[in-house]
Amino acid sequence: MPAKPNYYIYFTPFGPISIGARGRFITAVELGKAQLEGTFAPSEATNRCATQILQYLGEKRKGFDMPLAPAGTAFQKKVWAAVEKIPYGQTRTASQVAAAAGAPDSARSVGTALRACPIAVLVPAHRVVRANGYTRSEDKRARLGAACLALEQRVVRQAKL
Predict the structure, then answer these.
(1) DSSP 59-116
(2) Can you tell me the distance from the alpha carbon of 149 to that of 135, in angstroms, rounded to the nearest whole number?
(3) For residues 88 and 101, what is the distance between their CA atoms, to the nearest angstrom?
(4) Which of 44, 48, 65, 149 has the highest count of CB atoms within 10 angstroms of its CB?
(5) CA terminus-to-terminus distance, the chain
(6) What number of other Cβ atoms are within 10 A of residue 112's Cβ?
(7) Over 60: is that where the pLDDT of 87 sits?
(8) 144: pLDDT strictly greater than 90
(9) Which residues of 44-71 are buried (b: 16+ CB within 10 A; e: fewer)?
């Protein structure tokens, strides 16, 4: 019998985040207080995810090691997998991500796939920048992404000192 979905809301320095899981798999990380699929209750998976996000935001973690199961198309999943491979503190353009995902002529579709990603922060979309080096739009998710990228780049710079 498949595990039943659950979600819970946690608080971070950037405001509340809603984390969804199905068994040990994380299925969603949404900014704000969102009603996700399943029962509103914390679980081992959502607690572990929240802990890792807080450690990341506190500059104590550079990556995440929990199993992910985001819903998406085959192309979206290829894009998200390519983005997960971008090293901490580094950036890539949508064209570079498209090439890494095996679809070099799909740079515009990369942005669409990243906006559709249901697991914010865990798939580091903030590491994908425009060709001019700037981050994308100015919505709440983009502002968090810019803050995450600034945090990563600061940690990398400090490590070089």
Answers:
(1) TS-SS--S-B-----HHHHHHHHHHHTSPTT--EEHHHHHHHTT-TT-HHHHHHHHHH
(2) 9
(3) 18
(4) 149
(5) 52
(6) 13
(7) yes
(8) no
(9) ebbebbbebbbebbeeeeeebeeebebe
